[in-house]
Write a structure and sequence with these properties.
CATH architecture of the largest domain: 2-Layer Sandwich
Largest sheet: 5 strands, parallel
Distance between the termini: 100 Å
CATH topology of the largest domain: Heat Shock Protein 90
Oligomer: single chain
Bound molecules: adenosine-5'-diphosphate
CATH class of the largest domain: Alpha Beta
Shape: rod-shaped
Number of domains: 4
Number of helices: 15
Strand order of the largest sheet: 2-1-3-4-5
Helix content: 40-55%
Length: 505
């Protein structure tokens, strides 16, 4: 149940009171009206204060409506008071309004109905004011609690209001003090916003100075607003010094990291080079004693062939074979190592002529195996190094002829394909296809690493360095290698190099 509206009705005229009361009862339910006809009753009512609104006449036997109004507003400033009179003047009305009167109604036969309306309007107004005041308090509290500085400035660049965080950011105690500081050219900010199209808003990072001279970084967001037809700038000021410092630290860290990476890379390259030089000189120096071992074993075999028993000569033969294998391995290693180190000149090379030389070089191997090689002429020229291309093709062709199942005649096909390159001109892909034993797909990537062999030496002799030489050589010439194969289905190795015409342009 709602509590009744409690009212004081102050009028000496009983019939007027009755008429007003009737109208009030029509409008408000429940209603609790105290009729006041003397100063004693009024003082008691004021002392108790149990009323929500007052309707008073102006001319009373014992006082005037103005005095009553003053008295009530003195004790209860928010209490609505409506004056209902036929004796007041315009001056009285003005005076009463100044004192906080909510409405002034001239008495008349059809006017009683206006009293409850005036009371209701006044009550609603009071409620709205209360709500606004409450909101204002909450807003103020919020503004003072947030860590972001909030301010409002006018077109002249003067601060009109600001919250506590704003003052703290600038290190000042009051708005007046902030206005004496030259912390930012607010007038300039205003004119900049004026030239923007809606929403007239700007966000920028600024370096500011506190009142004690310390610098700090802030994110400043300003918006041009209109409040009661006046242009103002509303601003947010957020301290971003920590973030800025983190950015600087990160940049420094990145810079140091980059230098450290560069240093490490240089160290690694130097270590690698040392290692390569070491491997090179070892391979190189070991070849002489190895040749001696091989030579002496050969001499023993030849000179003592009559006297040696079968076992001893088989041992000597194995020494010779192993020494030979080691020698090949060292030659391969030297080639591989040299490939990594030497300066390489690239020039347009006629692949057909290189291939013809290669085939001539390995002719005895091929004849031995009764191999057939088909070259799909014409082959385009490539941009390469002649010596390296020769090594690459020798390794590919020797393998193509070598890795064939027993009893199968090796058949090799070589052809080329010109490919349109993206932006950088064409490339040429050379294919070497065989009818050999093929390579399982999961091993295909590994065979280009040094010493990777998929077969026993007894079945297919080798050092495991040939394809590593192929890959390194092709990479050094700016190309790529690959293989397409299936176990038992033959293999198709490819080498892709820049087209030869490129160098001629
Ligand atoms: P090597 O021929 O001395 O063994 P490579 O580096 O040339 O060494 O080749 C590595 C391995 O790749 C070979 O041992 C072989 O298992 C495999 N391979 C190379 N070429 C072929 C080929 N054409 N067909 C099948 N397997 C091959």
């Amino acid at each position: 149940m709602t509590s009744p509206l409690r009212m004081l009705l102050i009028d000496d005229n009983r019939s007027d009171r009755a008429l007003v009361l009737r109208e009030l009862q029509r409008e408000f339910d429940p209603l609790d009206v105290q009729e006041i006809t003397s100063s004693g009753e009024l003082n008691r009512a004021i002392a108790i204060g149990n009323f929500d609104a007052v309707v008073t006449d102006f001319q009373l036997r014992w006082t005037t409506g103005l005095d009553i109004l003053e008295l009530i507003k003195q004790h209860y400033p928010r209490c609505p008071v409506v004056m209902f009179t036929n004796t007041g003047t315009e001056e009285v009305a003005v005076e009463a309004m100044k004192l906080g009167l909510d409405d002034y109604i001239i008495k008349g036969p059809n006017r009683y109905i206006r009293v409850p309306i005036a009371v209701r309007n006044a009550l609603e107004r009071r409620e709205m004011q209360q709500r606004a005041a409450l909101l204002e308090i909450r807003l103020q509290r919020l503004l003072n609690q947030v860590k972001i500085g909030i301010f409002r400035s006018n077109a002249e660049g003067a601060l009109i209001e600001a919250n506590r965080a704003f003052l703290e950011l600038l290190g000042v105690g009051s708005l007046a003090e902030a206005n004496t500081m030259n912390w930012l050219d607010l007038r300039d900010g205003y004119s900049q916003l004026m030239h923007l199209s809606p929403p007239q808003q700007q966000e920028r990072e600024v370096s500011l100075q506190k009142s004690d001279g310390t610098q700090f970084w802030a994110l400043l967001t300003t918006t041009l607003n209109t409040v009661e037809a006046v242009s103002v700038v509303d601003g947010l000021l957020e301290d971003i010094s920590d973030r800025k410092q983190a950015e600087v630290d990160l940049q420094q860290l990145n810079a140091t990291l980059e230098t450290r990476v560069q240093e490490r890379t240089a160290e690694l390259e130097a270590a690698n080079q040392d290692l390569e030089e070491f491997a090179y000189s070892i391979s190189h120096d070991l070849r002489a004693p190895l040749r001696a071992i091989q030579g002496f074993a050969q001499i023993l075999l030849e000179d003592l062939s009559e006297t040696l028993d079968a076992n001893a000569s088989s041992v000597l033969q194995r020494i010779v074979a192993n020494a030979q294998h080691l020698n090949t391995l060292m030659i391969d290693l030297l080639t591989y190592s040299r490939l990594r180190r030497i300066e390489i000149d690239l020039e347009p090379i006629d692949v057909s002529s290189v291939l013809a030389e290669v085939i001539a070089q390995i002719n005895s191997d091929m004849q031995q195996q009764q191999a057939q090689i088909q070259v799909d002429e014409p082959l385009p020229s490539v941009r390469a190094n002649r010596l390296i291309l020769t090594q690459v093709l020798i390794n590919l062709l020797v393998n193509a002829v070598k890795f064939v199942a027993e009893g199968v005649q090796p058949q090799v096909r070589v052809w080329a394909e010109e490919r349109a390159g993206a932006g950088e001109g064409s490339t040429v892909r050379l294919y070497v296809e065989d009818n050999g034993i093929g390579i399982a797909s999961d091993r295909q990537q590994h065979i280009f690493s040094p010493f990777t062999r998929l077969h026993r030496d007894a079945d297919y002799p080798g050092t495991g360095v040939g394809l590593a030489i192929v890959r390194k050589g092709v990479e050094r010439m700016g190309g790529q290698v690959g293989v397409e194969s299936q176990l038992g289905q033959g293999s198709r190795f490819w080498v892709e190099l820049p087209g030869g015409e490129r160098a001629l342009r």
